[in-house]
């Protein structure tokens, strides 16, 4: 169990200086170093930023919207003049010359970055164990995983070292670790926040998002970060949808996602039906649940095969074997630089894009993705939100080895639905049956504010 002191809110005590406030959070991070949540702590830089903010305020500057908020940044998101590696040997030692747009916008509102957080290499994993920095450990039980790929981000908030973590979600990489660590994890709809400065894994899926204890802080961070960006043409210019009165919200759940043999998901099913006493709830089915995970992995491995081809030892990062031929340098650099999980996904992606298999796999997966979106569009004609579990289990032992190589991949079945459709989704902890039950809520496009509002309402309810 984690016994270090924690700060559960982002309100700086009256009379405490901002540097002292930052120092207390740095000490928490240092005391919890055994959990391996942080890759780099920016101790001197964070304290200097706090001092500069206080000086500016003393000279009449109005405090920013995030004054007093300490944040962490996942190690696949760029911060100017700071190292970023995506937890990969191929980028170890690389220093970014610029900051991600989301980071710039948060810092402009006086957020203070305490450090960068550990993750699965290039965001490829569900446990934050595929990392050159060693596995991230869950603060509630250090012998169990924190989830992934944003496991370090989740633990940085879980221990109280920061109030808000910026992570990335490709197929559940924010929502699942948030659930494993007892927090709220929010993935906006695709294109709502600029991906400029995010080291790509699967470009049509990747989305920046947030982990926190407080959904109101997530809402504030989302509003600060969202909006068009000249560096990312995929950012949506669509306005937020009109407010839906929470009391009249129409909820739906999908019966296929609650196997009778799984005690964990059945508890979530009981929670959802308890919510039916407070809201209009419909239970329906989803045709094609078995296609979700294969479709997701075909498409994301194909995109990762393309995106990671840039890491060849020529322009930046690791370079090995340059005394030989160009092919030798490519081979040795990529062999030394990439971990086993990344190599596996690159090979799978190259295979599904290869001549003779492209139509059989990649093209068909794109058709299934469109079909999934169409099913959800039909469902949302009669409903405002879809309620599902986040996972089929709690965190597993950190040294767990499955006999089935696909077992961990299939654990993503609950979260990839929203990712395939590019929809906003959130994982929230709800008090139910004398424990925390984690609920996933998926919303319509451009309904992030409504999604956060219904989340806050559900969290506030007194449920049996």
Features:
464 residues; alpha/beta; Amidase signature (AS) enzymes; 11-stranded mixed sheet; two-stranded antiparallel sheet; 13 strands; 15% strand; globular; disordered N terminus
- Report the sheet with the most strands, covering strand number, pairing sense and barrel closure: 11 strands, mixed
Rounded mean pLDDT score: 94
The CATH superfamily of the domain at 18-225 is known as Amidase signature (AS) domain
- Report low-confidence residues grouped into runs of 5 or more: 1-8
**Tally of DSSP helical segments:** 14
Q: How many β-strand stretches?
A: 13
CATH domain class name of the domain at 18-225:
Alpha Beta
SSE arrangement, N to C: HEHEHEEEHEHEEHEHEHHHHEHHEEH
| CATH second-level architecture of the domain at 18-225 | Alpha-Beta Complex
**Percent helix:** 25-40%
User: What is the rounded Rg?
Assistant: 21 Å
> Per DSSP, what share of the residues sits in E-state strands of 2 or more residues?
15-25%
SS-derived structural category:
alpha/beta
Globally, the shape reads: globular
- Give the strand order of the largest sheet, numbering strands 1, 2, ... along the chain: 1-3-2-6-8-7-12-13-11-9-10
Q: And the CATH topology of the domain at 18-225?
A: Amidase signature (AS) enzymes
How far is the N terminus from the C terminus? 27 Å
How is this structure best described in words?
With about 475 residues, the chain is an alpha/beta fold. It has a domain of about 210 residues: Amidase signature (AS) domain (Amidase signature (AS) enzymes). The protein contains 14 helices and 13 strands. It has an eleven-stranded mixed beta sheet with strand order 1-3-2-6-8-7-12-13-11-9-10, sandwiched between helices. It is globular, with a radius of gyration of 21 Å.
């Amino acid at each position: 169990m984690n016994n270090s002191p924690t700060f559960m809110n982002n309100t700086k005590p009256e009379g405490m200086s901002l540097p002292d406030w930052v120092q207390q959070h740095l000490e928490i991070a240092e005391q919890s170093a055994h959990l391996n949540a942080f890759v780099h702590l920016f101790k001197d830089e964070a304290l200097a930023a706090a001092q500069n903010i206080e000086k500016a305020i003393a000279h009449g500057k109005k405090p920013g919207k995030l004054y007093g908020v300490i944040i962490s940044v996942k190690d696949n998101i760029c911060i100017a003049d700071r190292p970023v590696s995506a937890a990969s040997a191929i980028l170890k030692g690389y220093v970014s010359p610029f900051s991600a747009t989301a980071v710039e916008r948060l810092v402009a509102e006086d957020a203070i970055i305490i450090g960068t957080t550990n993750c699965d290499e290039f965001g490829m994993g569900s446990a934050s164990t595929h990392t050159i920095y060693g596995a991230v450990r869950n603060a509630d039980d250090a012998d169990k995983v924190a989830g992934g790929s944003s496991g370090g981000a989740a633990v940085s908030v879980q221990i109280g070292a920061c109030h808000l973590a910026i992570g990335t979600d490709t197929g559940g990489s924010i929502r699942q670790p948030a659930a494993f660590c007892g927090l709220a994890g929010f993935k906006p709809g695709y294109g709502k926040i600029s991906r400029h400065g995010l080291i790509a894994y699967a470009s049509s899926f990747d989305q920046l998002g947030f982990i926190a204890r407080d959904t109101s802080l997530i809402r504030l961070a989302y509003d600060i970060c969202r909006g068009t960006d000249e560096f990312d043409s995929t950012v949506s210019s669509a306005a937020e949808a009109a407010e839906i009165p929470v009391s009249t919200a129409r909820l739906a759940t999908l019966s296929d996602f609650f196997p009778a043999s799984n005690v964990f998901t059945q508890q979530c099913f009981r929670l959802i039906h308890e919510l039916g006493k407070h809201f209009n709830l419909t239970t329906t089915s989803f045709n094609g649940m078995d296609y979700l995970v294969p479709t997701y992995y075909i498409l994301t491995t194909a995109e990762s095969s393309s995106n990671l081809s840039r890491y060849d030892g020529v322009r930046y990062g690791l370079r090995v074997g340059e005394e030989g031929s160009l092919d030798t340098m490519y081979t040795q650099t990529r062999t030394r630089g990439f971990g086993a999980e990344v190599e596996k996904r690159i090979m799978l992606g190259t295979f599904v894009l290869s001549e003779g298999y492209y139509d059989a796999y990649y093209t068909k997966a794109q058709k299934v993705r469109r079909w999934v979106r169409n099913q959800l569009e039909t469902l949302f004609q009669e409903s405002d939100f879809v309620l599902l579990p986040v996972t089929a289990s709690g965190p597993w032992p950190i040294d767990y080895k499955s006999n089935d190589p696909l077992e961990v991949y299939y654990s993503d079945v609950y979260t990839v639905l929203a990712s395939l459709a590019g929809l906003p989704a959130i994982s929230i902890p709800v008090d139910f049956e004398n424990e925390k039950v984690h609920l996933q809520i998926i919303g319509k496009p451009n309904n992030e504010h409504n999604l956060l509002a219904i989340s806050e309402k559900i969290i506030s309810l007194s449920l049996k």
